[in-house]
Specification:
By secondary structure, the chain is α+β, with helices and mostly antiparallel strands. Helices cover 36% and strands 30% of the residues.
């Protein structure tokens, strides 16, 4: 399986991702030919070599006129679905914009269909998103992975005025995807909503075992104290599976602590905060402690790079005086989030693969619950409809 790993040491934006793919070997003329299938005039795509700090790479330059009216999700869908792009490229591109609209809707308290796309609905943003998705297809990429993300800090000017960094839509997207974060106080926006949407819709947040076949650097427009670039690593994962019965297990850290002197809702809140921080899983177990006291075991499974932040969170949010830790390994199935169209609207389905073979699918609860509430249907019936549409694919 051909895979790509987005190493976001200075964040990610749509044009940085596009530049990284071009730097890794994507042919500019082939990409232009794919984007011509959108049948939307007025844009230009160029690439130029440059450096950021001590790293050389490629800057993708998308030129498009300013839009006079802001697009809705339906407008972007019409552009993509009305094109002659491959079905898989259409599906993944619309998935990115659907997640963007859902995130904006959560921020503004309105349905996704009513969201006015501002910056992310402009023609240059459409070229960025569709260009990245089409570029991955041209490179033969079957699976996308990403590193934890630094978000930066400060303020940024947007169509709604000045907004805090990270932008609210960016936070909503990464929260929906359970993306892991790393502390970063750079006074600039490092992850844009477009970059966040690409990763939330397409990527799994871990570094896989892979045999490297290529690397590329996409340059950002700013000059920072550190190299403002996005690195992509291309490689083959299938060879690792063929040489062993199981994929290489991932090494993580299991954190545990026993608590018997704190309100239950406060411990539950700590569990929620751990998941928001980037823990892969967090849970509570009832236990009996000394002198017969009822207690709870708080446990969290975290990537090694988040261990210090997770321990700090547990210490601040709970009454515990100590946290146990031990390295653990786990095997992880490949997953891909696919949007299927039902008679009640789109539903995201998480497709599971093991050793390259299909191994099941599960509809996303939030999508199914929304449809069930809006249409007065039993939740289990919505699940069945979504699975049926997925099986048709």
């Amino acid at each position: 399986m051909n895979a790509i790993y987005f190493d976001c040491f200075s964040g990610i934006s749509g044009d940085m991702a596009l530049g990284a793919l071009l730097d890794a070997g994507l042919e500019l003329d082939a990409l232009r030919a794919e984007l011509d299938k959108l049948q939307v005039p007025g844009w230009e795509l160029a690439a130029e070599r440059g450096t950021r700090g001590f790293i050389s790479g490629t800057r993708a330059l998308v030129h498009a006129p300013e839009q006079e009216t802001h697009r809705h999700l339906s407008d972007v869908w019409a552009i993509v679905e009305g094109s002659s792009l491959a079905p898989a490229v259409k599906e993944r591109s619309t998935r990115v914009f659907t997640m963007l609209a859902e995130a904006e809707g959560r921020v503004h308290g309105i349905p996704a269909e009513q969201v006015h796309f501002h910056e992310v609905g402009a023609l240059d943003a459409i070229v960025d998103v569709v260009g990245v998705v089409a570029g991955l297809a041209l490179l033969g990429i079957e699976q996308v992975y990403s590193s934890p993300l630094p978000l930066g800090s400060g303020w940024v000017q947007a169509a709604h005025g000045w907004i805090p960094v990270p932008a609210p839509a960016t936070v909503a997207l990464l929260a929906a995807a359970g993306a892991p974060l790393v502390p970063d106080s750079t006074p600039f926006e490092l992850v844009t909503p477009t970059g966040a949407a690409l990763l939330a819709a397409l990527a799994e947040f871990r570094r896989p075992p892979m045999r490297l076949t290529g690397v590329g650097y996409g340059l950002g427009k700013r000059e920072l104290e550190r190299p403002n670039a996005l690195r992509v690593m291309l490689g083959e994962c299938e060879g690792y599976r063929e040489s062993q019965a199981l994929p290489v297990p991932l090494t993580l850290v299991l954190l545990e602590t026993n608590i018997d002197d704190q309100a239950a809702e406060q411990v539950a809140y700590a569990c929620e905060r751990l998941l928001a921080l980037g823990a892969l899983d967090a849970w509570l177990e009832p236990i009996q402690m000394k002198k017969g006291r009822a207690g709870v075991l708080l446990a969290a499974l975290v990537p090694a790079e988040l261990e210090a932040a997770a321990v700090t969170l547990i210490m601040r949010e709970t009454t515990t005086l100590g946290v146990r830790r031990r390295p653990v390994e786990r095997h992880v199935a490949e997953r891909e989030l696919i949007t299927v169209e039902t008679i009640y609207g789109p539903v995201r389905v998480k497709a599971k693969r093991w050793n390259g073979a299909a191994a099941g699918a599960a509809p996303e609860y939030e999508d199914c619950a929304r449809i069930a509430r809006e249409n007065g249907l039993p939740l289990r019936d919505v699940y069945a409809i979504a699975v049926q549409e997925f099986d048709k694919r």
